[in-house]
Design brief:
The protein is mainly α. It has a domain at 3-81. It contains two helices and no strands.
């Protein structure tokens, strides 16, 4: 495999890991803030609420990341298709312009004779 592609893949995996870790840590912080506002809970209840709240936030984050990944794939496909069409148009314009210049040069050289 190409070393550049392997490096890019590794960096993407690292970025994904860091994003996921940050999302889990944020869910834990939110759970702590939430349980801090419920001072009447016992320690066991507080831990249960914290665990359930964290699990809920992690599930929501997972859903959001999946949607973002799917949308990114859609956009990549759309942009690739647009790029291919633009490249084809540019090549066509260059071919037409080169043909026009060659034709004009040929016409001028025939008229000058």
């Amino acid at each position: 495999m190409d070393p550049d592609k392997e490096t890019a893949r590794g960096l993407a995996q690292l970025e994904g890991y860091l994003l996921w870790s940050a999302a889990v840590e944020e869910a834990r912080r939110q759970a702590d803030r939430f349980t801090d506002e419920l001072p009447w809970l016992t320690t066991a209840q507080r831990e249960d609420v914290r665990r359930v709240y964290t699990a809920d936030r992690v599930a929501a984050s997972r859903t959001m990341f999946r949607r973002v990944r799917a949308r990114a794939a859609e956009l990549r496909g759309e942009y690739d298709a647009r790029y291919r069409r633009l490249r084809a148009r540019c090549v066509a314009v260059v071919v037409v312009l080169v043909g026009a210049v060659v034709g004009a040069c040929t016409a001028v050289s025939l008229l000058v004779r």
